[in-house]
Amino acid sequence: MLIIGENLNVISKKIGQAFKERDPAPIREMAEAETKAGVDVIDLNLGPARKAGAELMEWVVKTVQEVTDLMLCLDTTNVEAIEAGLKACKKKALINSISARPERLDALMPLAKKYNAAYIALSLGVEGIPRDANERALLTAEHLAKAAEYGIPEEDMWVDPIVLPTNTQQIQVQGCTEFMMMLGDIAPACKSTCGLSNISNGAPDHLRPILNRTYAIFLKRYGMYSAIADAFDQELQTIAKGGRPEIEALVHKVMDGEAVSLTGLSKEETDYVKTARVLVGQTLYSDSWLDL
Fold first, then answer.
1. Structural domains for the chain
2. Which residues, other chains included, contact 105 with Cβ-Cβ below 8 Å and sequence gap of 6+?
3. What pTM does this model have?
């Protein structure tokens, strides 16, 4: 599983200020740090970027490319800024993202075609967030039809089923996982991605990493190609690269409905099992699930 570093983000006070002041130093430092941490792609999240968005995106892309040659993921709702970023990218870029809403498809699909860019096909339609795996499949079919209309190859489409927080949308966790089991049949040539950190939104900070890592194992098992995540979670990086097979095997047992005894397990192994039980819906989410 590839990791798309999420840390070069306007919501960071330091990065947001650097964007505003056009201060290249913090931008370069973060891009270098993410590259050193081992990410495969760097997400450049400018947010809405309503004011001078095109100029800002061009500047950010050029600044980041001074210190890394990693693939860049252009993340903003400003269409003009997306195009400015695509023009500035030295290599194939990834557009984050194109929803299945007609206005976004009509605005951004021509840019994906024109600049030979890959893009994240977001499972978000006119009715909002999908409720289950089947609705995610229907939205993916809409994306496939539009890609065919523009002559864009399926391998340039990175399907995002939308990961939702387990503390408020526990049933949706299964909907996303079930969809990943279907995706290979629906669109075998497509890639996939997700905002992995969404799974732990709203959870206490000290519990977020175990949620993110455990759900990464879920999605990785069913072929998730990449995940937008914290570049500096080295344990997550290790899992993504296949470096914790024993932990993955343990989590898979929970996913398969096996009764896993906690007797004799280490604290780390126990935490993964308890978290997996929350994610499959065996245990109701609470902020104290690791203590129960």
1. 2-243 (3.20.20.20)
2. 98, 99, 146
3. 0.97
